[in-house]
Amino acid sequence: MIDLYYWPTPNGHKITIFLEETGLDYRIHPVDISAGDQFKPEFLAFSPNNRMPAIIDHDPGDGDGPITVFESGAILLYLAEKTGRLLPVDLRGRKTVMEWLMWQMGGLGPMAGQNHHFAQYAPEQIPYAINRYVNETNRLYGVLDRRLSGRDWVAGDYSIADIAIYPWIVPHERQKQTLTDFPHLERWFRSMQERPAVIAAYEKGAPWSGRPTVTDEGKKLLFGQTAGGDKQDGADS
Asked: Are residues 106 and 177 in the same domain?
């Protein structure tokens, strides 16, 4: 059994997609990030970066008790190795999947996240910041589009690279991107969108998807934290 600590954000959806693709038994524990659930001591005990998703695997197979994993990329790698699924075993295939997983973790996710922040959540519209992150998101879409030219999937066969990337493309309209500008990416996106496991994963998040991801009070929690846990001067109020 996998206990999944989750909220229906792009990083949360990555893990439910993997779990649905592989059929692992799991139960969801919602972590309402706008209400501050991610700062509860019992959650911080195994997710020290106060971010979801995180998992507890109660049957890791090594006989030493449950294993906790935080960070969505680390969770995907852990679960892929646990199941022997969606991660190649050959050197070159594994290398390629790892490259594109890291591309999402270090590039697409952070840049699209800043895109969302400055366009939608910042207390004042800063044209330079908005343009900076909209343009960088656009550049990354172009990188992915070129990669998918002549390929069905990002790293050859369907893999955790596709699973990691897809949820960050779902909000393309919020990111001020037009999928028809990227025909190879759009074809891939439609293929992902139609996968039964992807459909099931998003359905699993439906009970919480109607709630605002970031309320006014939640902004204070999400965007004003310092090392001491206090709200910074000038942060959202």
From this structure: yes
Structure tokens at 103: 């591309």
**7 within 8 A of 52, measured Cβ to Cβ:** yes
CATH number at residue 121: 1.20.1050.10
How distant is the alpha carbon of residue 146 from its chain centre? 22
Structural domain of 126: 91-193
Model pLDDT for residues 138-195, shown as the tens digit of each residue: 999 999 999 999 999 999 999 999 999 999 999 999 999 999 999 999 999 999 999 9
Residue 232 lies in a domain: no
The reported pLDDT for the residue numbered 220 is 60
> Model-level pTM greater than 0.85?
yes
Residues 175 and 99 placed together within one structural domain of the fold: yes
